[in-house]
Amino acid sequence: MTADEAARAPSSSSKQDARIAWFFLALAWFATIGAYSLFDPDEGRYAEIPREMWASGDWITPMLNGLPYFEKPILQYWATAALYSVFGVSEVVSRLFAFATAFACLPLVYWLARGLNQSREIAWRAVFFLAVSPFFVLVGHINLLDQAFTLFVLIALTAFLHAQNTTPARRGQLLVVAWVALAAAVLSKGVAAFVLTGGALLLHALVHRDRVFLARIWSLPGFLIFWVIVLPWFLLVEQRNPGFSEFFFLHEHFARFFTKVHRRDGPLWYFVPILLLAVLPMFGTWREGLLRAWREPHATPGFPALRFLVLWCAFVFVFFSVSQSKLPPYLLPVIPPLALLLARAVDDDARASRRAHLIQTTIIFFGVVAMLLFDRRRDGIVDPPVYWACGVSVTAIVVAWALRWWRQPTTQHAAWMPVALAAMFAWQGLLAAYAILPPERSSRGLVTDVRAEIRPATRLYSVRQYRHSLSFYLGRTLTLVDYKGELEEGLRRVGETTPPRYIDDLHSFVEAWNAERDAVAFIEPEVLAELQSLGFSGRRLASDDPRSVVVARR
Question: Full-prediction pTM beyond 0.85?
Fold first, then answer.
């Protein structure tokens, strides 16, 4: 081993610190995976589609409420359905893939940094920066598709950048990894993976006048493997569901970006406050981090990798800002590379970690006070579960400060570890409190109240609403009444069925209801009076007003 290699090799004590750090980071990350019920609509949707896949045995056509659902690709549904088949159906298992892929971004950022010749201190600081980002922690603890998409895009980005500074043989292997990861990203959330990576490469080529930029990513084996991974499902689902491709690519990609058809538009500055929330604990480092990355000599010979990361963050931010469809999680792929860029601007771990902890404490304090005041103002009292959830947040922050006061940190792990763990527990505590606060964001409590009234033969109706978690907690599909929403395409495809999957007006529903002997309806409260004026009657079972009223016909 050369002297330089010896200097770069981690000591046994640093290896021990790393193992301890990863253990506690993982423990904190997964601490609340089953602590709160599934949020509607997203968590209910991404738990229910794999449940129906697992129950039906159809692993090609995604189904939601028994109807074809083509808005997103298949990978996360496959992964969660496979987990159901091993561990059973539960809230914990439904979230496992999303939680795991979000957590995997932490070691991946470390690998990215080390491959760009950054020190272990900077690499670990990037990990801790990511762990204390409020936006990353909150989004990472909700069952969405964005975590897996971010992970696979980040793997492709990391492998591509590492390939720019290695031997030809190793370069070929890394580029194959990049193409495989890109295929997984496409199967996670669609062609946006191509747009983001290709757009960033094109922007790099324009800025640096790099005429051979495509050669940097080209790998014939990788390209062929990409299509071997991606094509089979797209071909099979199109074969079984003619017209899928037109809906998926035109309606769910081009129309989503260029039009307001999904009614998720926002101003051009929509993502600015979200980005500020993501980097707020690192306030004071963002400007210096980006400028230093842009000005510093190439981290890899012949290729400005750090500049490329700046361009990547800028392109992704601008791309989603100009899109006509905007949701906060879209920004997630920016955060891990940005954490690395900001980590390079910090030279004093003790001061930086103390500043991050102070900012974090302030945000958490206001969040806890807001939760408690909101609950008290609405109900006159604060529900004990809200106290407990907020107590977790406060305790995490207090313990972290106590550790800092009791033993002044002398190493990076000692300085940042309490801050990172406090961030994870505190934000998860607030998320759990938010899940409890009214109005109900899940149907778990409602289903618990009425489960004894529902038999296998009971017909289930959902009137002027569809709450995605209902199907999951009931383990059943429902007949929709005067509501289509995102299920419109699926309803169009199944057409007329017996019994009907959809009743298009309240008059027809009341006729069908009055002919039932054993039925339960989940009804939007505002429509109940209108139904009663049409002759609707039944026994009221429960309500989580203003979300649903449950009525039985028996």
Answer: yes
